[in-house]
Each structure stands twice: as structure tokens, then as C-alpha cells.
Amino acid sequence: MENSIKVSGGKVNEGKAEILVEETNVFYNPVQEFNRDLSIAVLSLFAKDKYEENCKKKAGDDKDEAEKTDGDSVDMKPGDKTENGISVLEALSATGLRSIRYAKEVPYLKQIIANDISAKAAESIKKNIIHNKVEHLVTASQQDATMLMYQSRQTRFDGIDLDPYGCPSIFLDSAVQCVSNGGLLLITATDMAVLAGNSPETCYVKYGATSLKSKACHELALRILLQHIAAHAGRYGRYIEPLLSVSVDFYIRVFVRVFTSQKKCKDNTTKLGMVYQCTGCETMTLGPLGIRVNKAHKLPQSLPVGQLCKHCNHKHHMGGPIWIGPLHDKLFVSRLLNSIEENHAELGTVKRLEGVLNVVDEELETPLYYVLDKLMSIVRCDTPSMIKFRSAILNAGYNVSISHAHKLSIKTDAPMEVIWDIVRAWEKIHPAKRDRLDKNSAALAILSAEPTTADVSFDLHPSANPMSRQKHMTRFQLNPTSYWGPGTKSTTMINSNETTAKRLKNQNKRSKKSMNEQEDNQAIDSPIIESDSPPSKQKKIIDNT
Ligand code: SAM
Question: Is 490 within 8 Å of 118 (Cβ atoms)?
Fold first, then answer.
């Protein structure tokens, strides 16, 4: 795994920052370098846009300024302070590392507040600000983040970074009020077990939505968090526009712009929906909370599913509400890729950044996805290669992509009838042992149904191999490090022998189980290994071209 962190003599070097960690008991997690690198890239592009907006606005407001600058912006370097730049609050800062990296690596900044509730953390932030000579940009603060944000509702920040242990919910009410109009929220959640369906009741308590146990749990987690932010923002006449939403390692991270408009908030019901998941074949169907007919908002008039699943006659589970609008602003993502190439080539995790963002760029907007080996295991049949399956979807006239959240994901606008027809066509060539199937099983119901798609062809389609794969990009995480995981409260994971020993002991614990079981447990925190052909216990892979 690429990793640029250097540790020596009680100091940690990451990016352009050097953090003193000696004898501190302040949280520092080296695995989050990717999170910080990505945040630097996103914040840099956002800051440039905001700065240009501010310059134009100022030039419009102030005639003298307009004469001086012609409304034009000037190229600024990271480390420079500018009045037209952005203000940033890192509400949960720990060592101050992230803020210091922002100060040294993000241009167009006016001010950064690095805050933490812990006295030890605040002390560490102060020392690190001086050590890194960023006093002109970064100010340390020791407050409860919620109080600080409530107190700043008038002045507001252009960027608010929330990187808590676990769930960010308790900070959202104040954050959505304290971010400027068009400002950016950068939010992490690490409580993946809750978000990924292990405890739907707890998920409702924390996020106002029930989660589902599903192969698409990582994207469901992103969509649960986004609906939660949208719900909070809506209370104050504000709506959200996600710029980028990623599921990586053991956490999710969303970058969301917040705008003020009561009118646009009314569109929220069209961007939120319930998910109906069949308990037999796991087909997922979305039911929006609202629809628009001729610009008017209407309530949906019927349920999107019947009493029993039309594919396999089993009952449904219902989860949600989830965000069903776009996860990313694709224009922003392609600009981000250019900007990383031009300005951030030195970032420690740049290869992975480019890999993940290229997959994001290729992702279809269709919500959720299926996972190929799971689809095939439902009908107890051998698994085709991803390329063959993608070809069949493309040959049938539909679009398909992978999701950055799962290496074997099938994201498609093809109706589920077509997907099951493709599965049926594959089973014809590679028959399942039908005599062993239960007569009430989802497998038998699906395999016995008459196909509706005229001709299914597995012939290689020219678009079946995504560019990110052809270019051998680092699309998914390679191997875990010994510090793998979200970390615990107040640990400097880099220097903690006890933590390291425990983590090393627990590491690869799952390798005792079969790889197939690992796949099933991936919802929680198991790393994803780049390959389109997983080893499989029950099913062998026929062809993996
Ligand atoms: N952002 C940091 C980084 O990139 O290294 C890591 C932050 S760490 C996961 C969470 C921090 O939140 C801890 O240092 C903890 O003291 C702080 N914290 C927890 N509750 C808080 C609160 N209510 N207000 C401010 N800080 C809080």
C-alpha cells in the first residue's frame, strides 16, 4: 500500500506537515492519510472556486476594488493568506495534523480554526501550529465542537470538517447552520457496522433511517448519511448538493455543498426514497418519497413492489429513507482529477486517489448495485467473469458500470427482469443442480421463469472493460497495514505498542474463515483486494477475461 508517512523521534511526517506525537495521548491514525489527501484535493478545488466567486462579488460591490483588480483573481500558493480566501473549521482536530496540512497544502485560505474538546489535544494543536510555522493561518481552539458551531452561526465558515470517532450525527444540527451559503461540509462516519445493516434499530436512532443487510451496504451507508445531512439542512431552509461521496477502507466520507433556498428544499422528497429488498433474491426496488409531475410536487400513488417479489415470490424488507439523488457532481470529479494531476502529484496516496476517482468518474448515477457472485449464488450457479456479464448487459442495450464501493459490483440501468434473464441465459450454458433446489426457493422460481429478453449475448462488448481497469489503476485498496481500522479514543496509533500488538493479533483473523465468508462480512471493515475474480467456495469461475 502506498504510504508516505515517516515516523522518527516522536515526530510524524505526513504531506507537508510534521506533527509532534511524543508522549501525547492524542488521536492520530496513519491509515487516514488517504482521507486527508482526498480532503486536501477537494478543499483546494473548492477554495479556488470560492475565491474566484469572492473576487468577482467584491469587484461588483466595491468600485475601487474593481478598478484595481478588474474583478480578476490572482493565482495564490498554499501557505499564503488572502482576505478573499475561505475560512475553515476543523471541528474535531486531535493533533491539528489535518488543519496544518490544509494550511500548507491548500491555496486560497483566509483562516483555519483547529478545534478539539480535549485539553491535551488543544495543547498538541498549539505546539504543532508553532512547530509548523502556520500561526498566520491556523488558530487553536478548545471547545465542544457543537457549541463552537452554534456560536458561529452568524459569522459562519466556508468549510467545516467533521472527522469524529464513529457517528457524526450529534454535530450535524450545528454544522448545517454554521456553514456559509454554498459552503462545504467534509464529513466522515466510521460506524460502518451500524450503517451497513448490523443493527437497523440503532441506525434509525443515529441516522433517522433503517439500514439493510445488503451487498450494496457501502453505498447504502453513503445514502443514509446524505439523507441525514439533507434532513438536518432542510430544517433551516437549506439544501445539499453532494460533490463527492466515497466509501473507503473502514469509513465513509462525503463532501457536500449546502445552499439556502426554501423552494429547493421542497425537491428533497424527490431525492429521498425507501428501499424494498426481496428476502429471497435480494432484488432492490426504490420508492421515492415524492415525485414531480409537470413541475408540481405529488405523492406517489402506489407502492413500487407487490406483496410478494415478482421474481421469486418472497416477501420484502423495507429500509430507508435513503438519498436517491446523485452521489457525486461528475463535473467536479473530472475537474478534481485534472487538478490532482496538475497540483497534487506529490500526495502520498496519489495513485489510489486517481484510481478511486477514475472509478467514481465511470460510475453510473443509478442508485445501488448488485454483486456478481452474490447474484449467481442466489441461483446456485457458476459465476461468469465481470467482463462477460457486463458485455451481456451492454449487448442488451443498457448501461453498466462498477461502483468504487465494491470490486464485483454491477451498477446498471437495466431492469431486474433483464438481469435475471442474463443469469438464466448463463445457467443454460452452465446448469445449476436443479434437483437439489428447494421447491420454494428463490433459485427455482427465478430459473423456472420464462425469459423476456430476446437474445442474451455474452460476446465481448467493446465498452465492457472500463478504462480504469485497462490502465491498471489502483482502484481498490491493496493490503491492510498493521494499523488498520478506525482507531479508538485518544490513541496516537503510531506510537502505541499496546494498540499495535492488539491490532496485529486481530489482523487477518478472518483468514481462518473461507474467502467466501470474508466476502459476506465485507460490510464491516474487511479490506478489498483488487481483482475481478474472487476465490469462491461453492462456485468456480468459468472465465475471467
Ligand atoms: N481529524 C483528526 C485527524 O485527521 O487526525 C482526527 C480526529 S479524532 C477521530 C476525533 C477527535 O474528536 C478527538 O481528538 C476527540 O478529542 C475530539 N472530540 C470528540 N468529541 C468532541 C467534541 N464534542 N468537540 C470537539 N472535539 C471532540
Answer: yes
Q: What is the reported pLDDT for 60?
A: 82
Tally of CB atoms within 10 A around 73:
17
Tens digit of pLDDT for each residue in 153-198? 999 999 999 999 999 999 999 999 999 999 999 999 999 999 999 9
> Which residues partner with 113 through β-bridges?
89, 139
The residue whose grid cell reads 437549506 is: 238
CA of 159 to the centre of ligand 1 (A): 17
Q: Which atom of ligand 1 approaches the CA of 36 most closely?
A: 4
pLDDT at 454 (0 to 100): 84
In whole numbers, what is the pLDDT of the chain averaged over residues?
A: 88
Among protein residues, the one with the nearest Cα to ligand 1's atom 17 is 92
* CA of 151 relative to ligand 1 center, distance in Å: 18
Under 8 Å between Cβ of 43 and 88: yes
Q: Helices then strands (H, E): number in the chain?
A: 19, 18
Q: What percent of the chain has pLDDT over 70?
A: 83
Helix (H) or strand (E) holding 298: strand 296-298
Give burial (CB, 10 Å; 0-12/13-18/19+) of 426: buried
Tell me the best of 32, 98, 117, 488 to mutate to test the pocket of ligand 1, counting ligand atoms within 8 Å of each CB and taking the most.
Answer: 117
Query: Could you give the angle at the alpha carbon of 107 between the alpha carbons of 101 and 110, nearest 5°?
Result: 90
pLDDT of residue 545 exceeding 90, the answer is no
d(CA 387, CA 465): 6
With the most atoms of ligand 1 within 8 angstroms of its CB, the residue from 19, 27, 488 to mutate is 27
Q: What is the pTM of this model?
A: 0.89
- Report the separation in Å between the CA atom of 287 and the middle of ligand 1, taken as the mean of its atom positions: 37
> Shortest CA distance to 114 belongs to which of 123, 106, 256, 44?
123
Tell which one of 116, 173, 188 to mutate to probe ligand 1, the residue whose CB is within 8 A of the most ligand atoms: 116
Q: Output the ligand 1 site: residues, CB below 6 A.
A: 27-28, 32, 36, 92-95, 97-98, 115-118, 121, 144-145, 163-165
One-character DSSP codes across 469-538: HHTT---S-----TT-S---TT-BTTT-HHHHHHHHHHTTGGGGS-HHHHHHHTTSS----S-S----SS
CA of 132 to the centre of ligand 1 (A): 20
Distance of CA 452 to the CA centre of its chain: 36
Cβ distance 399 to 413 under 8 Å? yes
- Look at residue 6 and tell me whether its pLDDT is greater than 70: no
Q: Whose CA is nearest to atom 10 of ligand 1?
A: 164
Tell whether omega for the bond before 415 is within 30 degrees of 0, i.e. cis. Answer: no
pLDDT, tens digit, 9 for 90 and up, residues 118-146: 999 999 999 999 999 999 999 999 999 99
Q: What span, in angstroms and rounded, lies between the C-alpha atoms of 79 and 71?
A: 23
Q: Ligand 1 center to residue 491 CA distance, Å?
A: 11
